[in-house]
Each structure stands twice: as C-alpha cells, then as structure tokens.
C-alpha cells in the first residue's frame, strides 16, 4: 500500500523543475525570434534583389543596344512601375583594348537598409554595339558595392 507522502510526490512538478523550464524558455524564445526575423529579412533581400537584377538588366540592355549609353542620364528611378528602386549609370575605360565598361547599379531598401545590385557590360565606342557582356550581382548593406 502506498503512503500519503509518496502519492503527493507523484502528482506534479517541483518548484525547481518549473524554474528550470522557465529559464530554458527565457533563453530559447529570443533566439527563435531572432532566427525568424533573420530568415524573413534574407527572404526579402533575395526577392527584391532578383527584381533589381531584372530591372538592371533591362535598363542596361536599353542603354547599350540602342546606342544611347554615351548621352544617357547617369541616374534615375523606375517610375511608378517599380517604386523603391533607383538606378545609377557609370561608364569607364576598360583596361584592355579600346572598350568602354558600362556599370548599372540598382539600389533598393530592405528593412531600412540600402542594398545594391551591379551589372556591367562592355561596348565598343566606335560602333556603339555590345561586344561582350558580363554580369555580376552583389548586395551590400552599406549602400555601395565594390566587388564585381
């Protein structure tokens, strides 16, 4: 036969066990919330970066294929079609041959931080036609992208 003290010990948790569970939850919950926030931010960066890459590719093609890159504006936005995206255009002399490098940077914000995607191509100034295309996408939270 069971005594009264052994029955009462089997009914519930001790105070120490409850405190240990609460401490465990106090450590675990902030880490889980931070992980969910980070995953949400990365997902948004990838989605908006993909859109920015397509916009940059279209704009760079428009500038290089129409031959207007030499007289084009150096910055702008994508109007009401794509609010929150803006672009900057830069041309520089390429290290080899007599080619000109065209760089188009598209900027966008994700959760208050500016990100950028850079696409580049080479054109021959003599005939204003694209001779070689190279694209590179980079994303940075500082607002400028230095690697290609």
User: Between the first and last Cα atoms, what is the distance in angstroms?
Assistant: 80 Å
Question: Low-confidence parts, pLDDT < 50 over ≥5 residues?
Answer: 129-148
How many domains, as an integer?
Answer: 1
Strand content: 25-35%
**Rounded Rg:** 28 Å
Give a count of the beta strands, DSSP E runs of length 2 or more.
5
On the 0-100 scale, what is the average pLDDT?
A: 81
Summarize the helix and strand pattern as letters.
HHEEEEE
Number of helices: 2
How much helix is in the residues? 25-40%
Question: What structural class is derived from the secondary structure elements?
Answer: alpha+beta
Please give the order of strands in the largest beta sheet.
1-2-3-4-5
Instruction: Please state the overall shape, judged from the principal axes of the Cα atoms.
Output: rod-shaped
Major sheet, described briefly?
5 strands, antiparallel
């Amino acid at each position: 036969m069971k005594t009264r003290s052994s029955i009462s010990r089997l009914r519930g948790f001790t105070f120490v066990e409850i405190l240990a569970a609460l401490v465990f939850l106090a450590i675990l919950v902030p880490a889980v919330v931070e992980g969910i926030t980070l995953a949400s931010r990365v997902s948004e960066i990838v989605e908006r970066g993909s859109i920015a890459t397509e916009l940059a590719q279209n704009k760079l093609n428009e500038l290089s294929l129409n031959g207007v890159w030499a007289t084009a504006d150096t910055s702008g936005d994508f109007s009401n079609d794509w609010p929150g995206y803006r672009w900057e255009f830069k041309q520089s002399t390429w290290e080899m041959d007599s080619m000109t490098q065209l760089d188009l940077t598209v900027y966008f914000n994700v959760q208050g931080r500016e990100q950028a995607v850079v696409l580049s191509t080479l054109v021959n100034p003599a005939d204003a036609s694209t001779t070689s295309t190279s694209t590179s996408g980079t994303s940075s939270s500082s607002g400028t992208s230095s690697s290609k």
